[in-house]
Design a protein that fits this description.
The structure holds two protein chains of two kinds. Chain A is built from no helices and eleven strands. By secondary structure, chain A is mainly beta. In chain A, strand 4 and strand 5 form a beta hairpin. Helices cover about 0% and strands about 50% of the residues of chain B. Chain B is built from no helices and ten strands. Classes of the chains: A mainly beta, B mainly beta.
């Protein structure tokens, strides 16, 4: 089956530093990947849509200069949280479009804690 | 799905009973709907999906019902087990290449 991995699974960083999160489709190619953020006891909120070889499309209210997304290949998208602050602490989840109509495969998520 | 809420509603059921989790969606143009299960600290896990040209679809112990007239989706879990305890999200989609719009989720707690 289609598997999406994320690395790291959790990370703790100091305020002001940058953190990169990787999202990989392990056994399929994903033209489109999505990045979501989830706060405790809340739903997933879309941050951006990432298409291979082009600039990401960010949702309203998501700062593109703070959350840098790169989708350089059909199997890898990265999210870099720049100058992280405690309010950026969250669970970041990526997904990749599958072959089946409308289907998306989710990664296991990355827990980011900014101290 | 509905806009993100601040707290998850909780459904508590006894082991062996049937569970029904409801969801209202917002976009009448959505034509694909999915139910996901999310355990603590993990990513969403696909349960069952349904296209807008159907009103019912059954899987193993799960059934999804779609009422497009009132934009309502439900997930029925038969003979609920302790392992079913998790947060359940509905999601709507306009098709391939589009992001999912998630509902606010329901926390299911199965008691012995």
């Amino acid at each position: 089956g289609a598997v999406v991995s994320q690395h790291p699974s959790w990370v703790i960083c100091k305020s002001g530093t940058s953190v990169k999160i990787e999202c990989r489709s392990l056994d399929f190619q994903a033209t489109t990947m999505f990045w979501y953020r989830q706060f405790p006891k809340q739903s997933l909120m879309l941050m951006a849509t990432s298409n291979e070889g082009s600039k990401a499309t960010y949702e309203q209210g998501v700062e593109k200069d703070k959350f840098l997304i790169n989708h350089a290949s059909l199997t890898l998208s990265t999210l870099t949280v720049t100058s992280a602050h405690p309010e950026d602490s969250s669970f970041y989840i990526c997904s990749a479009s599958g072959q089946r109509y409308g289907e998306q495969y989710f990664g296991p998520g990355t827990r980011l804690t900014v101290t | 799905g509905e806009s993100v809420g601040l707290h998850l509603p909780t459904l508590s059921v006894q082991e062996g009973d049937n569970s029904i989790i409801n969801c209202a969606y917002s976009n009448s143009a959505s034509d694909y709907f999915i139910w996901y299960k999310q355990e603590s600290g993990k990513g969403p896990q696909f349960i069952i999906d349904i296209r807008s040209n159907m009103d019912k679809r059954q899987g193993q112990r799960v059934t999804v019902l779609l009422n497009k007239t009132v934009k309502h989706l439900s997930l029925q879990i038969a003979a609920t087990q302790p392992g079913d305890s998790a947060v359940y999200f509905c999601a709507e989609n306009m098709g391939s290449g589009y992001a999912l719009n998630f509902g606010k989720g329901t926390s299911l707690l199965v008691t012995p």
